[in-house]
Amino acid sequence: MQVELEALQPLLKVATIETDALLETISHEQKEANATKDIVGAEEKLCNELAAEANAIKESCEAELAEAIPALENAVKALQTLTIGDITEIKTMKKPPDGVKLVMEAVCIMMRVSPVKIKDPAGGTKKVDDYWGPAQKSLLGDTRFLQNLLEYDKDNIPVEAMDKVRPYTANPDFQADKIRKASVAASGLCSWVHAMVVYDRVAKVVAPKREALKAATLALEKAQSELKIKQDALQLVLDKVARLEEDLAAAYKKKSDLEFQVDDCSKKLTRATQLIGGLGGEKARWSDMSAQLQIVYDNVVGDIMLASGKP
Q: Can you tell me which residues the record assigns to a coiled coil (predicted)?
């Protein structure tokens, strides 16, 4: 047992050193994990703030566009109900009503179709702009006319076109319900012009917000990307700490087992020493008794003879 105890004690010493080293390593790694957690927490807060900012801008844009979208949708629906026959009906008008001519003038401006100079129908030598001829030729005669209106680049309407067409939409006679009395098809075109004007006005308000939203979205995406990198780094540290804690638990168990074995062996050795010590005292007593018995044995014959009275 003494040999076993001497063999166990160095193992216990090594286990203690290894356990202490693991504790120190875990303490260091935990500090690193806590520092990374603080950084990740701050960046998560930043991402939340950026997301809130981007969402607020987006909601503002949607609120502004909510004014224009219904008019735009109604105009699109009106255009989609028109047929080539409806357009041909307008084109073939010999003497188009003033309302129809007014609508086609506005559509020509929007589609950047230039007028031609004609003699003033009211008389005199002065020449005036005429859109009806160009409208018949360049717009109403184009089989893709309606499709071109549906695909119109409403986000990039030229400023000069808007400046020219606004007086038309401000005209009390330039209303879809009034134009409908002269031509249902022209009424749909009138609604389209009104929708484009409303959309352009709103779009100019929304445009800076869209740019701000774009910038905010890019900033958010960048922050989220950087946050992901740090979150991954944090997870690596946390995984490492978890593995070290498992190693520490195993080291504690190993140390505890060795401590138990050393303690058990020490106790057994103490009891054995005490037992051997006790047995040593009995040996001396037994030796004395043996010597005394030998004397008795050596004298037994003489004692018997003396007892019998023989010389």
A: 213-261
What is the arithmetic mean of pLDDT over 105-119? 95
Domain boundary (185, 205, 225) is at 205
Which parts of 82-239 are beta strand (E)?
116-119, 127-130
Percent of the chain with pLDDT over 70: 88
Nearest to 255 by CA among 26, 27, 17, 21: 17
- Report the interhelical angle of 184-308 vs 98-110 (nearest 10°): 50
Phi, psi of 131 (to 5 degrees): -105, -15
* Mean pLDDT (whole number) for 263-268: 75
Token pair listed for 12:
């216990």
Token code pair at residue 81: 């109900």
* Number of separate domains in the chain: 2
Distance CA 288, CA 282 (A): 10
Per-residue model confidence (pLDDT) at position 303: 61
Structure tokens at 94: 């010999």
Rounded Cα–Cα distance for residues 259 and 191 (Å): 93
Would you report the helix, strand and coil content of the chain in percent, each value rounded to 5? 85, 5, 15
Query: Is 275 domain-assigned?
Result: no
Residue 95 per-residue DSSP state: S
Judge contact between 29 and 199, C-beta under 8 A.
Answer: no
Phi/psi for 121 (5° steps) reads: -60, -20
More confidently predicted of 262 and 159: 159
pTM of the model: 0.56
- How much is the pLDDT for 107? 97
Confidence of residue 277 (pLDDT cuts 50, 70, 90): low
Q: Give the domain extent around 57.
A: 2-63+212-257
Shared domain check, 142 and 192: yes
* CA 30, chain centre distance (Å): 26
